[in-house]
Amino acid sequence: MIFSYYPNKVRCFLSYNTRPQVEARILAENYILHGHMGDPLRHRIRRINKQDCVEIITLDELKLAMNDAYKRIFYSVPGIVDKIALLAKQGELLLVVNLYRYLEKGPYTVDERDELHELLKIAARLVLLHYASSKDHTLEDPLLSLSDRERQTCYWILKGLTTEAIAHELDVSPNTVTTYRKRAYEKLSINSKSALFAICR
User: Fold this and answer.
1) Are strands 52-58 and 80-90 parallel, antiparallel or unpaired?
2) Residues 6+ apart with CB under 8 A from 72
3) Among candidates 130, 193, 170, 135, which has minimal Cα distance to 2?
């Protein structure tokens, strides 16, 4: 998962998972809505005063500062046993790339971490370059990554219209609106109207 951090909000730019996609979307949504407030990584983020930097942070470095509820929701329940977080900052852009390991694969070994170290730094720089160079990317408007119809559907949802009212506005069937909404939520890594409001506020 790739998250961007701002003073009052967090956005999810990417949520990729080889397990059922709904699982990743639910985790991302929970994190965006309230979970990020309990993430011990936030303390590291607040302390960054360098303009440009890349830091590699392991789960072991964060575990002691995690409360039990946070561990249960974001690690125990989904079966995540390890992660490597790449904290990357360039100018005002601050991203965290999280690479997770599930129970079936087990935690990262010391050898794996050593082998991946330089590659992870390169990956973090590439992610920064990608998002920093995209003038019209979701940094300004998360809905820009959607098709025209998906974006229109989300705008109408944000204005409080029902599925039937949106269908009337777009001159399509309510089932088509439901399809647009479902596709949009998948692309945005969210699963509810409240999450849509959270990332667009």
Assistant:
1) antiparallel
2) none
3) 130
* Assessment of whether the complete model's pTM goes beyond 0.90: no
- Which position has the token pair 């129970």? 103
Q: Tens-digit pLDDT profile for the chain (201 aa)?
A: 898 887 777 888 777 777 665 577 778 878 887 888 899 998 888 888 777 889 999 999 999 999 999 999 999 999 999 999 999 998 888 999 999 999 999 999 999 999 999 999 999 999 988 887 765 444 445 676 788 899 899 989 988 899 999 999 899 999 999 999 999 998 887 888 888 887 776
Residue 173 · residue 167 · CB < 8 Å: yes
Q: Is the alpha carbon torsion for 65, 67, 70, 75 positive or negative?
A: positive
CB 31 within 8 A of CB 74: yes
- Sequence-ordered alpha helix ranges (H) in 66-173: 68-71, 110-133, 148-158, 163-170
| Residues 168, 117: Cα–Cα separation, whole Å | 53
